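4.2 Preliminary Data

To establish feasibility before requesting continued support, the project team ran the inverse folding procedure on a target of 83 residues. The structure was first converted into the token representation described in Section 3, and no sequence information of any kind was made available to the design step. The complete token record follows.
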């Protein structure tokens, strides 16, 4: 599936991934290929994604995620560089 992580300032990541873990407002959750459509609020925490290159993480300060037809778009409020 294709993942994009965006902030108001820049595109943080774009590429194909196999699984993504999000800090949801009601707890963490994972999205895999062919996941059902979803829109969810995200809280301050870490987005972890796995691609062919391995696992990576981005610390966000909150935001929204949309999952639709194997495309995942994260609109993050910002990136937490201090954690």
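Position-by-position output of the design step:
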């Amino acid at each position: 599936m294709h993942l994009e992580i965006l902030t108001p300032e820049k595109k943080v990541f774009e590429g194909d991934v196999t699984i993504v873990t999000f800090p949801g407002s009601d707890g963490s959750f994972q999205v895999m290929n062919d996941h059902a459509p979803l829109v969810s609020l995200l809280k301050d925490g870490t987005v972890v994604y796995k691609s062919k290159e391995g696992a990576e993480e981005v610390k966000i300060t909150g935001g929204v995620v949309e999952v639709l037809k194997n495309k995942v778009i994260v609109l993050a409020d910002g990136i937490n560089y201090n954690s």
